[in-house]
Amino acid sequence: MPTTIPETRHYFTPDGLRLTADVGGDPTAPPVILLHGGGQTRHSWSGVMQQLLAAGYHVINLDARGHGDSDWSPDGDYELAALAADLGAVIATLPQPPALVGASMGGATSLYAVGNAAPGKPLARALILVDIVPRIDPVGGAKIGNFMRGHRDGFATLEEAAEAVSAYNPHRPKPKDISGLMKNLRLREDGRLHWHWDPKFLAPSHRAEPPDFTEQLHAAAEHVQIPTLLVRGLKSDIVSDEGIAEFRSHLPALQVFDVAGAGHMVAGDRNDAFNQGVIGFLREHLPAA
Q1: Which of 39, 67, 191, 285 is the most exposed place for a label (fewest CB within 10 A)?
Q2: What single DSSP character describes residue 17?
């Protein structure tokens, strides 16, 4: 029987970590896997997941290793190869190849995984990258890194954390109800609220956010043979016209969907326009009943 209300499920990585996901929809329907950005959790996709379920898809909304309710890597391995192997383990549980929707780190993971899949065995049927190209703008990348490295001692209150987010995203109106931010925070033994991801994630030798793997992703793009869409926020400080042009030189069939009024966090900034672009692309290349 179709699962209309998402339920929590677990998957296991090749190196034994337990990943947590929200899963919903008819398991015989075309599957879509949602992969969040670095420093986020699966809850950043909540609105998108509901729209995809309503459109008839089977949806797996995954917490990446080291994030949300998934296990942290004991040796701090958060490189692309590890993230892609995790994704492959989830895909292996499905009866058919999925569409992949990945934001920033999740998009880089998806591109790397698809481009490095075994020849003749398509890992996915469609690829949607959300505000990520192989060569990001260095100023925007530094902004992400500085935000993620900041506040290492956590926050005294939820309001303090909300102010930090507003300072990072000044163009997005501050929500009246900030309680949802708790999904990305955890109260630790020091009595302070900390972002719910492994601090080792930002170690220079293991970092996957901000993206720092241009050549790996350009090489992967050369082997992508499935429909691919880039969703760009027109206020993005990560994705430039030059970055798109260089990406397209490696992946000529790349399509681009621009979202006005959105920055790097496209789905959060303009969820309505984002859903329109993503679901329209999926209906064309992976139609649901």
Answers
A1: 191
A2: P
Q: Are 148 and 120 in contact (CB under 8 A)?
A: no
Cβ contact 104:264 at 8 Å:
yes
pTM tops 0.70: yes
Residue ranges per structural domain of the chain? 3-148+208-285
Span 138-196, pLDDT tens digits: 888 888 888 888 888 899 999 999 999 888 877 777 778 888 888 889 899 899 999 88
Residue 238 contacts residue 144 (beta carbons within 8 Å): yes
Task: Encode pLDDT of 229-281 as tens digits.
Answer: 999 999 898 999 999 999 999 999 999 999 998 888 888 888 888 989 999 99
Contact residues for 141 (Cβ-Cβ < 8 A; gap 6+): 210, 211, 212, 238
Contact (Cβ atoms closer than 8 angstroms) between residue 31 and residue 60 = yes
CATH of 3-148+208-285, one of 3.30.70.660, 3.40.50.1820, 3.40.50.2000, 2.40.30.170: 3.40.50.1820
CB 211 within 8 A of CB 104: yes
Classify each residue of 89-100 as buried b or exposed e, where b means 16 or more C-beta atoms within 10 Å of its C-beta: bbbeeeeebbbb
Q: Which two tokens stand for residue 206?
A: 């293991």
Residue in this structure with the two tokens 């027109």, named with its chain if needed: 234
For residue 203, the model assigns a pLDDT of 75
Q: What is the DSSP-derived secondary structure letter of residue 262? A: -
Question: How far is the C-alpha of 97 from the C-alpha of 100, rounded, in Å?
Answer: 9
Instruction: Return the structure tokens found at 246.
Output: 């260089």
